[in-house]
Amino acid sequence: MYGGDGNHSYAKNSTYQRGLLDAATKIIEEEIATKLEIPTSSKHFCIADFGCATGSNSFPAMHAIIKDVKQKYKSAHLKTPEFYVYFNDVVSNDFNTLFSSLPPNRGYEVAAVPGDFHRCLLPPSSIHFAYSSCSLHWLMEVPKAAEGLKSPCRSGGEREEVYEGYLGQFERDLESFLKCRALEMVEGGIMALLIPGVPTYWDPQREFTSVSLAELLRSSLLDLTKKGRLSETKLAKFNLPYFFPTPEEVRVVLEKSKSFSIERMEILKSAALLSIDGYVACFRAAHQNMFSHKFGAETVDEIFDLLKMKLQTFPVFANPCNDKSIVVVAILKHSNV
Ligand SMILES: C[S@@+](CC[C@H](N)C(=O)[O-])C[C@H]1O[C@@H](n2cnc3c(N)ncnc32)[C@H](O)[C@@H]1O
Fold first, then answer.
1. Could you tell me the distance, in angstroms and rounded to a whole number, from the CA of residue 205 to the centre of ligand 1?
2. Among 35, 65, 175, 218, which residue's Cβ finds the most Cβ atoms within 10 Å?
3. Where are the beta strands (DSSP E) in the chain?
4. CA distances (Å), 126 to each of 47, 122, 138, 184, 194, in order?
5. Is the confidence at residue 170, as pLDDT, over 80?
6. What is the mean pLDDT of residues 177-202?
7. Atom 21, ligand 1: residue with shortest CA distance
C-alpha cells in the first residue's frame, strides 16, 4: 500500500490550497444547511477527516464544518451537540505535529485514527460527517500494466493499457473507500470529497495539468536511470502511485454506489497559481519520502533539480494561468439507495 507520503510537509505548501478550501467550504455550508439530517437521538456529532496529513488544511476545514453544523442546530432550536473529530492518515503520518498544533479553544474533542482509509477504521454507524480532501487520488498500489514507469496516455481518443490499469485501480480503491464509509456512517450522514483531477481535454502546447507535471517527473526519473544515477532494477517495478481522474470518471464510481446518493458535484479550478519553484517545492513535499526510501536520500536533490530544469525548458509552465488542473467536489448522502 502506498497511501501517499505520510510525513511530507504539506504545511509549507498549504497556502496554495486555501483558495480551494474557501470555495469548497461554501459548497459544504450550503449542503449542510439544506441536506444534513440532525441526529436527534444523539448528544454528540462526529466528524472524520480521511487523509488529514499534519492538519494545516484540516483544521480550517473542521472549523468551518462545525460552524455550519452549529448553525443548523441553532436554526432548529436544538441544543448544540458535543463535537468529536477523528483525524485519519497512514500510520507513518506525523500525528505528533498534528496534535502539537491543534488550534486552542477549538471546541471539539479529537482522536487519531492511523491506517489505510480503504479499510474500515471506525465503529459502525458512528460518523455524522465524513470529509476527505486531496487524498483519494493516491492509489493502494501501482497497476501491473504501469510498472517500469510506463506513462498512462490516451491516443486518438483510445485509452491505452496503462491508462486502463490506473483507472481500474482508482475505481476499485474509491469503491473500497465508499463501502467502508457506508458501514461507519450513520444513515442520513453527509460526506464531502475533494478529489484532484483533470479536464477531459487540454491543449498541451498552451496548457498543462497535474498529469503534465507527473509526466515530466517520470521523464526525469527515466533520464537519471539512463545516466546510471537510479537503479534500473528498482525502477522496473516502480511507477507514480496516483491517478488524476476526470469528473466523469469520478461520477461513474459514485453512481455505482448503493449506499450513497450524489447530492451535488462541482468542478473547481485548482487554486495552485504557483511559480516553477512553487511546483517543484510542492512535488518535492509530496514525493521526497517515497523517493528517498525507494532510490536513496542522495538522489532526491538530483531528481528535483532535473524536474525544475525540464519545467524551465517548456514556456507553457512559466505562466500559472495555463494550469488547467481541477478539483472535483462531491457531496454524498448516506442513504442505502
Ligand atoms: C495531499 S495530502 C492532503 C492533505 C490534506 N487533506 C489537505 O487537503 O491538504 C494527501 C494525504 O492523504 C494521505 N493518504 C493517502 N492515501 C491514504 C490512505 N490509503 N489512507 C490514509 N491516508 C492516506 C497521505 O498520507 C497524505 O497525508
1. 31
2. 65
3. 44-50, 82-89, 109-114, 127-133, 154-155, 158-159, 185-197, 260-269, 326-334
4. 9, 7, 25, 6, 22
5. yes
6. 96
7. 89
